[in-house]
Amino acid sequence: VSICSEDDIRCLESIKDSLDDPHDRFKSSWTFTSKTAGFICGFVGVECWHLDSNEVLNISLTNMGLKGQFPLGIENCLRLTWLNLSNNELSGPIPSNISQILPFGAALDLSFNRFSGNIPKQISNCSFLSTLRLDNNQLTGLIPPELALLNRIKKFSVANNQLYGPVPNFSFSVSSYAGNQGLCGFPLEPCINRPNFRDSFKKGFVIGYAFSIVSVISIFMSYCVPWVHRNERKKQLRPFMLNPILNRRRNKRKHSHQTSQMLHLDLLDEASRETSMLVKLVSRMSYTDLKEATNDFSADNIIGFGQMGTTYKATLSNGCLLAIKRLFDTQKFDEHFITELKTLGTLRHDNLVPLLGFCIESREKLLVYRYMSNGNLYNWLHPSEEGEAKIIEWPLRVKIACGIARGLVWLHQNCNFRVIHLDISSKCILLDQNFKPKISNFGEAMLMKSNNTDWSSSFYMDSEFWEMSFVKEDVYRFGILLLELITGKDPSQLTNSSNTGKLVKIDLSTSSNFYHVIDKSLIGRGFDLDILQILKVACNCVHPNPDRRPAMLEVHKTISAVGKRYGGLKTGSKLTKV
Ligand SMILES: Nc1ncnc2c1ncn2[C@@H]1O[C@H](COP(=O)(O)OP(=O)(O)OP(=O)(O)O)[C@@H](O)[C@H]1O
């Protein structure tokens, strides 16, 4: 029995001593006579880190009719992460040194008891807390504003107590605070004019918001109202603009190949021929090596599925990590494969995902990229419910936007060639280990070389037509991405014409709906004016008239000026777990 587990045993002994268990729901199972390895792991309500060691992970003594005070001996359960004493008849105060008692606590549930007194502000030092439930007790006084420092908090409730004053500055719904007569502040009624609201900082905060709301409304009025009709206009404009070029690409293939099988073989031939020009930049890799690096394309190594194929994580024998996109064996995607090779294969920039190699063997077509350990931006902005959500704070969002804009400026304005991506979205922005954004998915891209005819998919065309038809399409898509970063809304909500209309109408109808426009996690963190400035840029980018959209150079200049205010960002320093 290690020193650590002796502490844990002492912890459980003292809990047993300090609680009254009138219905014998747990006490009879907690016998300390034989102190063998893991003997406490069979106790009712106790979960261990490992079944053969006496180290307590979780304690859940809920709905047992327990009486007594908060069991202070819990302090000796040194690695306890989850404490649930809900639905009992426990009373007395929540200990003020709660952060010493539960230093690694991820969840504390004391709901439905009779705890009284104030909520200790030291709870804010329990920095791992993601769940804090103190609802349905007899707690009184102010909610300590320091609770807003709990930056991993995901579930929070103090409902049905006797609390008053401003609620902490974090985003939970009204139900978290319901049943307390005197609480105020977003999302409840504003605190202005309430006797308990004496904090002048908070007054300033509210006034600042009022100012921001007015500004947001004027910006939406002046920049975004035409955006409501944008999609209808885009539908009319886009075929006219894109078709001549796209049809040229398609017709060229159609006329030269009679059957689809021939098309397939020809494209692969073409790829083989033309990619031989790329071998200096992009290595041709052997199928056997890639198969080995992915453990025979094992399901365990799948990173995700796209429309074109499945992407695998691969580890080379030297430890180097790769992402391998294995395209579905369909002719439809051959063109995507070749375009990706021709564009991304020739391009090297800090904000583009490096395409390291490719493989064409028999019917297998594989594209090999450097592995981006933080996945795609979309998944960070819209985490799945089950997964652990993390918020990207505003300064990091600006840095990401700035990096993408920088990459697009380079693509649009490079002197040797001009590239348009045509498919910019948060899903194609990959994030490396330092959250540096890398543009990926060049399968729709077009490359124009002004005086070069070597490339069958590069074009020479009137530069104004190129600019208005294609470059400004990238600017539009970047604008949607900026709106996604600001609002946290899914791009489908931003580009669907009916929803877009709804969004703008809601924003203009009542000022309090300001909070629905800006991503909740960004509100009240001191960046309101910067958010407004970037919002203005976003609205310019999605202007229905392509002429009125700015060039990416201008967009990048504004965003980088905002980004400079935040200085250098260290890895992960601007992430908040929730
Ligand atoms: N280099 C990479 N490093 C890490 N993850 C990657 C890399 N390339 C792609 N991924 C991830 O693999 C998954 C599949 O990517 P893929 O590009 O095939 O699909 P997608 O981004 O959903 O686009 P589409 O459906 O338009 O093909 C995505 O989650 C993507 O973020």
From TrEMBL:
<keyword id="KW-0433">Leucine-rich repeat</keyword>
<keyword id="KW-0732">Signal</keyword>
<protein>
    <submittedName>
        <fullName>Probably inactive leucine-rich repeat receptor-like protein kinase At5g48380</fullName>
    </submittedName>
</protein>
<keyword id="KW-0472">Membrane</keyword>
<dbReference type="GO" id="GO:0004672">
    <property type="term" value="F:protein kinase activity"/>
</dbReference>
<dbReference type="InterPro" id="IPR000719">
    <property type="entry name" value="Prot_kinase_dom"/>
</dbReference>
<dbReference type="Pfam" id="PF08263">
    <property type="entry name" value="LRRNT_2"/>
</dbReference>
<keyword id="KW-1133">Transmembrane helix</keyword>
<dbReference type="GO" id="GO:0016020">
    <property type="term" value="C:membrane"/>
</dbReference>
<dbReference type="InterPro" id="IPR001611">
    <property type="entry name" value="Leu-rich_rpt"/>
</dbReference>
<dbReference type="GO" id="GO:0005524">
    <property type="term" value="F:ATP binding"/>
</dbReference>
<keyword id="KW-0812">Transmembrane</keyword>
<dbReference type="InterPro" id="IPR013210">
    <property type="entry name" value="LRR_N_plant-typ"/>
</dbReference>
<keyword id="KW-0547">Nucleotide-binding</keyword>
<feature type="domain" description="Protein kinase">
    <location>
        <begin position="297"/>
        <end position="559"/>
    </location>
</feature>
<dbReference type="InterPro" id="IPR046959">
    <property type="entry name" value="PRK1-6/SRF4-like"/>
</dbReference>
<dbReference type="InterPro" id="IPR017441">
    <property type="entry name" value="Protein_kinase_ATP_BS"/>
</dbReference>
<dbReference type="Pfam" id="PF00560">
    <property type="entry name" value="LRR_1"/>
</dbReference>
<keyword id="KW-0677">Repeat</keyword>
<feature type="binding site">
    <location>
        <position position="325"/>
    </location>
    <ligand>
        <name>ATP</name>
    </ligand>
</feature>
<dbReference type="InterPro" id="IPR001245">
    <property type="entry name" value="Ser-Thr/Tyr_kinase_cat_dom"/>
</dbReference>
<dbReference type="InterPro" id="IPR011009">
    <property type="entry name" value="Kinase-like_dom_sf"/>
</dbReference>
<dbReference type="InterPro" id="IPR032675">
    <property type="entry name" value="LRR_dom_sf"/>
</dbReference>
<keyword id="KW-0067">ATP-binding</keyword>
<feature type="transmembrane region" description="Helical">
    <location>
        <begin position="206"/>
        <end position="228"/>
    </location>
</feature>
<dbReference type="Pfam" id="PF07714">
    <property type="entry name" value="PK_Tyr_Ser-Thr"/>
</dbReference>
